[in-house]
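Review form for a predicted model. The reviewer records the input and the model, then writes brief findings.
Reviewer: anonymous (R2)
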Amino acid sequence: MKSILKPIGGFFELEIQNKDYTYHSNAIALSNGRACLNLILKHIHAQRIWIPFYTCNALLEPIKTNQIPYSFYSININLEPTEDFKLKKDEYLIYINYFGLKGKFIKALINQYNDQIIIDNTQAFFERENSKTWSFNSARKFFGVPDGAYLYTPYDIPFDYARNTDLSCDHLFNRLLGKQKQAYQEFIEYEKGLDDEIKMISIFSECLLANIDYLNIAKKRRCNFNYYHSNFEAVNQFNLPLAINTIPYHYPLLVNNQIDKSLLYEQNIFIPILWKDTIQRELQGFDFEKNITQKLIALPIDHRYEIDELDYVIKSVKELLRI
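Model under review:
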């Protein structure tokens, strides 16, 4: 008789329908963005990597793991490099698709650098493959899942790694139960525990992501972005238009004066700081990036929020900005 590996009987597991659907069906599904970058670096044998200063330290972890020399570069008000790189053989450029709004610029970069550019799409989950270069995203930044990231490659690479089983959903469950403060502390601890070890996506997140209504979520993000833009366009220093088919991450509101975000937290409005690491690095220069970190108001636009909730955010932000 054929051996049955699946346990039969006993208590029930979490009831999640596995629809056998993947939005990124042509990608390699790994545990997180750092794992994706780590796998890339193990294949390209880079001698040096250029990295935007405006990023979090998580991006540096796989580079340090692989002991690759790196240099920071600066960006301008359009969130584009201030210099035109002349990459040598085995040199690579990492560019971040900031707020998911730089798709058109990225196409030009890919045409210029081919597979010597690595696109960090962790703020652009809905961007799919291109056949010329490396790119990766992150499901955790867009959906309530404990892990998941998708890697696109310019050519086939071998991969055979174990599933991720080192995960926790405590922060997800407790936020759903309304325990916001407890969930936030659990979220912080969980994020601290993430690393760049290469593992395949967990079966749990794979099932969750198979049940997501991607089309309506994408529409809601675009709608919410445009609604914020109609209210803040006049004061926003960024001019980052929402192109057709672009699905944004946040609405990036950059203003002259720095606001105390804790005053928004007191009103149950949680604005991320992107990224504290930039002002904690002991490096001279990069004043523009440090200024963004301090003054950017990254407004949430995801599928959880309707217009009345956006109006609440707009009113609160305008009161703090006195506009």
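Findings: The radius of gyration is 20 Å.
Further findings: Residues 245 and 267 are 33 Å apart (CA to CA).
Recommendation: see findings above.
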